[in-house]
Fold these 3 entries.
Entry 1:
Amino acid sequence: MKKMNRRQFMANTGAAAGGALLLGSASVKAATRSSKRLRVALVGTGVRGCSLWGRNLVENYSDYVQMVGLCDHNPGRVNYAKQYIGCDCPVFTDLEELVRKQKPETLIVTTEDSAHHKIIVRGLELGCNIITEKPLTIDEKKAQAIIDAERKSGKNVIVTFNYRYPPYRAKIKELLMQGLVGEITSAEFQYYLSDGHLAEYMRRWHGEACRGGTLWVHKGTHHFDMANWFIDSEPKEVFAYATLERFGSNGAFRGKSCRNCAHSGKCAYFWDITKKEHLYNLYTKNEQYDGYVRDNCVFRHQIDIFSKHSAVIKYANGVYLNYSLTGDSDYEGYWIAFNGTRGRLEARIEGFGSKEYNELVFIPNSRFSDKPAQIIKAEHQPGGHWGGDPIMLDKIFVHPDKPDPLGQQAGVRDGVMSILIGIAARTSVYTGKPVNIADLTDLTPMAKRPVKS
Ligand SMILES: NC(=O)c1ccc[n+]([C@@H]2O[C@H](COP(=O)([O-])OP(=O)(O)OC[C@H]3O[C@@H](n4cnc5c(N)ncnc54)[C@H](O)[C@@H]3O)[C@@H](O)[C@H]2O)c1
């Protein structure tokens, strides 16, 4: 079954590539593939690259995908990654050399966020299609550079918003598309990071705005993309507050790294990387090449992101979204709700995969219905992110031409619209003023998200 789909895909994709347009759905522009298996190269061999896009592709998708090169600017890390992934392709520290020698059809971009645009723009110029991790990039200038490069290249960029793929989120999208709540008028989205999860961000490059764009962008991109997709509109204006508490300069002491810290005995955030074999091999053993300290201090003065975020987003279709992202409660999960002309749909997601299903609650508007509130069960599936990761990867690699009725596959436009909310929120925090999304790039927000016609 999988092989048949692959052959169909090979036959169809060449023809589809000619009609490329910059639209929200990446399936509009199927990639041109010339060899039997898709020749991919991975750029950025950190923990994400090594796992989902490395070892997982080699172990589970090698009928469809051939890993032809690995690239990372850290020579030690890329060599360790090759061994961990279990592939026999050459490794590179230079993108140009990788593309020239290995001729990949597609680059998979899993570098730190601040480098995505460099790899994407150059990769497109060199004739590669792109599959990139979120966030697409971290500021509006880099976003515009990607928009321009994609238009010019006629190549395809897929942004891997795996948050769209868990079956229970597909269920929410389906119910909203069916008009369960009528026209959406407003929405609420409160996202909670556990204390440990927030500390993980502070420990790494994510703690520095110039590297991860702040959590407004790095983490918010997932949430804003989900909101845009569910509301089916594009953001118009954003106003926000945010602040940093507990971490960075708020700490009473600090050290160079957890391993070499005089305060480790009394620090609530002490984290021992020497007990994490894979992470130790990947990062600590290769620290001398680029100074990447994986067990960095959560109280270092360089931390300039926020720990508490609150925003109001006005959409081009008139919907207001109230959003918050905090690590104030030691709880991981979220509440999301849509108020519409015919009722309200609520979803509470907690515990990341601890239950086999999620319950959605629909409260009909009593003016239109005498039915009581209804509980709708939405099942999870096996695999990462409640079954979303394998569904997303199958769509990309196994059956790219399979219809996408919920519009789950995302391209540059969706990638940009999600980060622009975060970028606008960050700017609003700095300036104290609302930010107009249309002022950030040359994309004009549309009341209804553009999709393949
Ligand atoms: N979708 C998800 O759920 C999800 C989950 C985790 C991470 N991610 C994303 O995946 C990406 C990687 O995250 P990670 O946790 O593996 O980070 P990481 O820091 O562990 O790995 C990034 C790698 O990129 C390399 N790198 C940085 N700049 C480079 C450049 N210019 N050229 C070549 N290599 C470069 C670094 O040396 C490092 O090995 C990030 O963009 C992150 O947002 C997504």
Entry 2:
Amino acid sequence: MHKARFISVEGIDGAGKSTHLAPMAQWIRAQGHDLVVTREPGGTALGEALREMVLHQPMNADSEALLMFAARREHVTTVIAPALQRGAWVLSDRFADASFAYQGGGRGVALAHLQQLELWVLADLQPDLTFLFDLDPATAHQRVVQGSPVLDRFEQERGEFFTRVREAYLARAQAEPQRFHVLDALRTPEVIFAEIKSVLLARFS
Ligand SMILES: Nc1ncnc2c1ncn2[C@@H]1O[C@H](COP(=O)(O)OP(=O)(O)OP(=O)(O)O)[C@@H](O)[C@H]1O
Ligand SMILES: [Mg+2]
């Protein structure tokens, strides 16, 4: 019986998270694990509704942070915790680190407020492993623009915003080096995926 594992992927818009989700899921399932693949914001009916609002409707930064954590609470209680309890693995495209990076680093929401929300919403739950796709904002922006004609509220932000988001992510990774694995996302998907597999094997087999 394999222990349930909770893995998140993080990084600025266009860093390559979603690109790697399907190959990661396929590989984890091929190792014989039951796996739930999910995303934030989203992952539940309420979360997907809030995702639409947060990505498209203007709002102040604190409201944005509160909505993200409301969606996250629903996600944790109805999807993530039950999956882990029945022994399944969970792979989430973004999780709580994204709030520290985007609402904290990007929008300037007070760290103390985010820490309070994290304590309330996550209790003891943290991912076992977080892959941080680290990429310079200029390259990430080029990838986003090439990939999608319509940009959401975050994708429309300027380079300085994403520089702050990236720095907040890296600060979080530095504070928790045992949980984070930082990937140089400038490389090809093949090279990045090979590194992901070797990390998963080294950590969890
Ligand atoms: N390593 C890579 N090299 C070059 N292009 C890449 C790489 N990884 C992803 N891409 C391309 O960059 C674009 C953005 O990738 P992807 O959607 O995976 O990013 P993301 O991190 O999920 O972004 P978002 O946060 O906006 O959802 C896609 O068009 C994808 O094909
Ligand atoms: Mg994505």
Entry 3:
Amino acid sequence: MNKCDSEVLASLLVENGYSYIDDFQKADILLLNTCSVRDTAERKVLGRLERLKQVKEKKPDMILGVCGCMAQSWEKELLKRFPYIDIILGTNRLIELPNLIRERLNSGVSAIDVLEMPSNGEIIPKVRESKVTAWVTIMHGCNNFCSYCIVPYVRGRERSRSSESILQEIKKLGESGYKEVTLLGQNVNSYGFDSDEKIDFADLLALIDANSPGIERIRFTTSHPKDVSSKLIDAMGELPKVCNHFHLPAQAGSNNILEKMNRGYTREHYINLIDKLRAKVPDISITTDLIVGFPGETEEDFQDTLDLVRRVEFDVAFCFRFSPRRGTPAAKMDGQLPEEVKMRRLYELLEIQDKISIEKNRAMIGQIHEILVEGQNPKDKSQLSGRTRNNRIVFFTGDIDLIGQLVTVEITDAGNWSLRGELCS
Ligand code: SF4
């Protein structure tokens, strides 16, 4: 979502006559688009703002802006710590960026807009990082208030975009040569719940699948287990462009912890969903997010999470230790665990999951897969990089002209996070 927001901010600047330069120290405008989801992300921004003091001293007319979730939640506190910030722009108001720049230039004092009320108007990004795959926001905000999560406080309640506007954006992407779209929302499964359109997420997928010439692949993120419907599971099996990958955050394997997290489902419900998905789409890849060390998590609760991991055998799991976010109920709960307990549990979980991931990746050796070539391997420009339909990154040798094409590749080697392959003739 933040990457997509950065594309929106860049588009607004380009529309207003600005262009990118490589050396940020010489920029007229420098924006930090921030994330609040974990403490580490916030600390990174604070460290960067410290360092930018010198840059601002050398070039005082540079406009330094902080956008996104941290701008929304920290507001004036940021200005107190870093008085040289010129613009603070919240998540619901991105479209106001040009106005804030004007306000700052005219008034000479810092301009702030972190209103919770979303601005009128939509911005369809014109500047995109990739020419092959595109993010398409289908809804903003979240109504779920998981007890550990800051998102509903910084991105507001759910607002679905109209299906017509989404379709138009995707059609244009197809016409411009894009092959893949990833539909974005904090909880895409509740798409349409807030609108009068009577179109739910499964309907939206069907509409896009049928009306997106040029687009070959549809992905989406993120899903919430409590809102995954049988209709959606059926759509996964039936719609040809929808990829065989489902990211379904479990967060924990213990019902006690799931309840404290206010997740609204049980481990039994979660396992049932996975079984149904696998029955409908046998080669589906399932990925997840897991948190260890949630307040009050006992050794038994933790073992339940390990048990879930062994039972489901996720293709990939993004594992985190609990990071208290100020203003959320979980930050104030009794039973906060020491860091060393969280770390030990995290390592134990990673050890088990890594073995599962590598085994699953190795099982793909010898298989032929359709790959959408996205670009060059960032670590070895002589190689191309692309993705299978089940969302594995594959590196292989090939001509640069293949970028943007669908090719077939035989998988020859597998690591934890990526595969290697050979182009089939
Ligand atoms: S559903 Fe996701 S974004 Fe919404 S509160 Fe829960 S974790 Fe946060």
